[in-house]
Amino acid sequence: MTPFSTLLVGAAASLTMSADLPASYFSTLPVETPVLHLECDTGGTAFCRSLAEAITAQFPLHRVELTSREDAIKPDVTFVAEKATNTSLSGHLEWQVMPGMTGRMRPAGQGPTLELTVMDATLNDRMLAAFAAQLVRHSNLPL
Known about the structure:
6-stranded mixed sheet; two-stranded antiparallel ribbon; 3 helices; globular
């Protein structure tokens, strides 16, 4: 037999032998989901929740946990508000040095300042969720 045909026969034999094994035999080791600590003390609970959801949507391999300044946990990402009223919210995201997907350290930085302003109403959850999604998209977080 040539080496190629031996390889095919070997592969077929291993498939045949593995057919009798229980599915649990093939289970993979659990992979720990990286936790991203988000500090968001301004903009209200709805905005902070929307920001966490926007980060999770853009980076589904991470689990986002909200923290505040009072927590002992050093945040990975912080929302820095520059203006916060019931008709306007502006600010940017800042991030600390953190490992990226490859395990290499990524530099600290900040994203651009974005602003959401309405004149004929107050900010609502839908507006804040859209603002959070745009903030994450334009910040280019190094994850």
